[in-house]
Amino acid sequence: MFYFLLVLLCPLDTQAVDVAITEDIDSVKVVHNGTNVTIMRNQNPDNIINPAYAKTSRKCPPFCIQPVTIAEGVETIGELELLDYLKRINAGDSSILVVDSRTQDWVEKGTIPGSVNIPWTALNPGAGADPFTISDIFKERFGVRTSEGLWDFSGAKTLILFCNGLWCGQSPSNIRSLLVFGYPASKLKWYRGGMQDWESLGLTVVK
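and the corresponding structure tokens:
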């Protein structure tokens, strides 16, 4: 089992690998829960994708293909951008938070190291989320303040949200809920590929 929170991008200066992340990056040195870990792609050329993400025909709805742009002003990002955000977090940038928007049953199958789990059900009143829980998450996790009874997003964190991938609606639900509450679109980033793309690239996960 691998644990990691991105520390730095490691150039090809130690031991060469056959399956690098990019031509210039073979691995990512990380710390997760106090444990030093090297994040890299699976080096077994016969490795195949996790069966949990191998299905091609999940019933739609609810497992419908998501658009490339989830909402106006919300940037869609890929793996390298996500790794860069994790690098910035580890360098001490507390203004960023990577959010796994999935429910616990999915998170137990493995998640992206360095992320925190805030399921879509915790921010969606229609799914049973109560105002007090939502308020606590905003204040304690997202850095949102209140001013004269209104939300003050001036110091709110930039959130990078993901779920299971192109067919998953859990992070889109979180993003839409946040926008309804007034969270600035410019402070929301969406890793659309999610766990399916992460797993398909053989990148390390944590359970």
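(Above: one complete record from the training split.) Residues 79-90 form the longest helix (12 residues).
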